[in-house]
Amino acid sequence: MQRNSDIKKGTLYIVATPIGNLEDITLRAIRILKEVPLIAAEDTRRTRKLLNAYDIRAPLMSLYEQVEGKKSRRLISKLHEGMDVAYVTDAGTPGISDPGYVLVSQAVEHGIKV
Questions:
Q1: Is 114 a member of any domain?
Q2: pLDDT in tens, 56-79
């Protein structure tokens, strides 16, 4: 029987997205979004357009400002179980002028790699 401390924690990837042109995304961002089993997004409708442009089929979970506290706890649980998660906002970098601060703070508190 494995103890919780024996389970490798997942990684939270903070992924910057294009501010204007979808082609401005980085190769690294595309790779991460293709590799993670779950993507948390400020607006799933806008993020789905980006993912479709690059044939990325990962499941999406909404994580906008009004639900960030509650859903961040759920994501922290998934990260503790070993799941990698990417977080994206509508445009730009999460936590700069977009939601993401609560999620990143909780991840750091829980010793999760960001």
A1: no
A2: 999 999 998 788 888 999 999 999
Q: What are φ and ψ of residue 8, in 5° steps?
A: -70, 130
Higher pLDDT, 1 or 44: 44
CA-wise closest residue to 90 among 43, 24, 52, 25: 43
Evaluate if pTM is beyond 0.90: no
Q: Which domain holds residue 93?
A: 4-109
Which residues, 6+ apart, have CB-to-CB distance to 80 below 8 Å?
Answer: 4, 7, 9, 10, 110, 112
Tokens at residue 5, please? 């401390």
Distance CA 94, CA 96 (A): 6
In a domain, 81, yes or no: yes
Return mean pLDDT, the chain: 88
